[in-house]
């Protein structure tokens, strides 16, 4: 559960910046499922994000339809990351480029989700 929540945080940050404004809200359960595979990289256990991590993030990015979706995903991820010891901010920030996903903002544990546009 902790790994899933942390992964969600990472993925949501990435995908929030990749999408355009719309009306849907992405549920935390979806975010959790898509981001779970990223935890081992974010904690330094893997040398690079897995294919499953990148694929999940790309799928999540495609599901974002609005700024509200981005903010909701960010909130889910931030809540989840608190449950994981060893998450490294420097590794989180590397996920977008390692997965070849453009997010348009710094991916960080300290991001203020309310400032996402």
Summarize the structure.
With 117 residues, the chain is an all-alpha fold. The chain is 54% helix and 0% strand.
Explained architecture:
46% of the residues are buried. The model is unreliable at 17-23 (pLDDT under 50). Helix 1 packs across helix 4 (51-63) and helix 1 runs antiparallel to helix 5. The protein contains 7 helices and no strands. It is mainly alpha-helical. The chain starts with a helix and ends in a 19-residue tail after the last helix. It has one domain (24-115): Hydrophobic Seed Protein (Orthogonal Bundle), CATH 1.10.110. It is globular and about 35 Å long.
List the helices and strands and how they pair.
Elements: H1 2-16, H2 28-35, H3 39-42, H4 51-63, H5 67-81, H6 89-92, H7 95-98
Helix pairs in contact: 1-2, 1-4, 1-5, 2-4
Organism: Nyssa sinensis
Family: Belongs to the plant LTP family.
GO molecular function, one term: lipid binding
Gross CATH architecture: Orthogonal Bundle
Determine the number of helices (DSSP H or I, runs of at least 4 residues). Answer: 7
Q: Give the number of domains.
A: 1
CATH H-level superfamily: Plant lipid-transfer and hydrophobic proteins
Order of helices and strands: HHHHHHH
Class from secondary-structure proportions: mainly alpha
Tell me, what is the CATH class? Mainly Alpha
Helical fraction: 40-55%
Rg, rounded, reads 12 Å
Backbone shape: globular
CATH-defined topology: Hydrophobic Seed Protein
Mean pLDDT score: 79
The low-confidence runs, each spanning 5 or more residues with pLDDT under 50, are 17-23
Strand tally is 0
* Major sheet characteristics: none
Strand content: under 5%
Please report the distance between the alpha carbons of the first and last residues.
29 Å
Signal peptide: 1-24
Function: Plant non-specific lipid-transfer proteins transfer phospholipids as well as galactolipids across membranes. May play a role in wax or cutin deposition in the cell walls of expanding epidermal cells and certain secretory tissues.
Protein name: Non-specific lipid-transfer protein
Family: Belongs to the plant LTP family.
């Amino acid at each position: 559960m902790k790994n899933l929540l942390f992964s969600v945080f990472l993925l949501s940050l990435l995908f929030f910046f990749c999408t355009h404004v719309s009306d849907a809200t992405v549920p935390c359960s979806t975010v959790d499922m898509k981001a779970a595979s990223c935890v081992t990289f974010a904690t330094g256990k893997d040398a690079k994000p897995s294919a499953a991590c990148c694929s999940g993030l790309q799928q999540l990015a495609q599901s974002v339809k609005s700024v509200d979706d981005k903010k909701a995903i960010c909130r889910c991820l931030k809540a989840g990351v608190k449950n994981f010891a060893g998450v490294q901010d420097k590794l989180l920030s590397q996920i977008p480029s390692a997965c070849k996903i453009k997010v348009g903002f710094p991916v960080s544990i300290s991001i203020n989700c309310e400032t996402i546009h």
